[in-house]
Amino acid sequence: MTYARRVPRAATATAASLLTLTLAACGTATVDEGAPTAPSPAPGAQDAVTAEAFNGADTEFAEMMIVHHEGAIEMAELAIENADSDEVRSLGHRIAAARGPEIDMLTGWLGAWGQELPGEMDMGGMDDGAMQMDTMDQETVMAELSGLSGSDFDRRFLELMIEHHRGAIEMAENYRGEGEDLEALRLSGSIIDAQMAESTEMGNLLRAL
Predict the structure, then answer these.
(1) What is the CATH number of the domain that holds 175?
(2) Which of 12, 28, 114, 139 yields a CA-CA distance of 20 to 30 A from 58?
(3) Taking the CB of residue 22, how many other CB atoms lie within 10 A of it?
(4) Mean pLDDT of all residues belonging to the chain
């Protein structure tokens, strides 16, 4: 005898229910996978971070370092014209070439921060110890160097430029504990490294005279 294979109605209903639940679960899983893993930032949050990316220490560092670099270029250009040795003349070229782009960078930051440039401000009071060399200001230093020639010029230039570098390193180190702008902080580290290396080079040249 042949028997027909029938599925009980109860079993059919149970299977249909299980299929419905399975599809519902799959649909829920699909929605969950597309859901964000972290809450989106509140509107304007990114703008607030950008707007607060600098502080007063950043602007003061940029202002003072521009003036300081301009003084270094002025001294370096005098060394290019008056130095007795090729080594000191080459150093003058390198100092002038390195400080120019840094001034442009610092100037750009001040503009982006909505700050006035040093040339547009009263710079009185900014000529503190970091701006002086052997207790002399920039004008006095330039007058002294302009009256020297030969190895006398080279020796005095190196002595005063070492002092000038000391001031820049001091400013950069003091700023690093107070600044907020990441790019300005990176530049301050580069200034410290570069001017320490140049100071060592100048010390070696000075001892060789």
Answers:
(1) 1.20.1260.10
(2) 139
(3) 10
(4) 79
How far CA 183 is from CA of 14, 50, 109, 115, 147, in Å, comes to 67, 13, 9, 17, 40
What are the pLDDT digits (tens) for 54-94? 999 999 999 999 999 999 999 999 999 999 999 999 999 99
Nearest one of 133, 139, 117 to 166, comparing CA atoms: 133
Sign of CA dihedral 112, 114, 115, 119: positive
pLDDT tens column, 20-42: 434 344 444 343 444 444 344 44
Which residues constitute the domain of residue 115?
A: 54-208
CB 165 within 8 A of CB 68: no
Residues 6 or more apart whose Cβ sits within 8 Å of residue 110: 59, 62, 63, 66, 116, 117
pLDDT of residue 149: 96
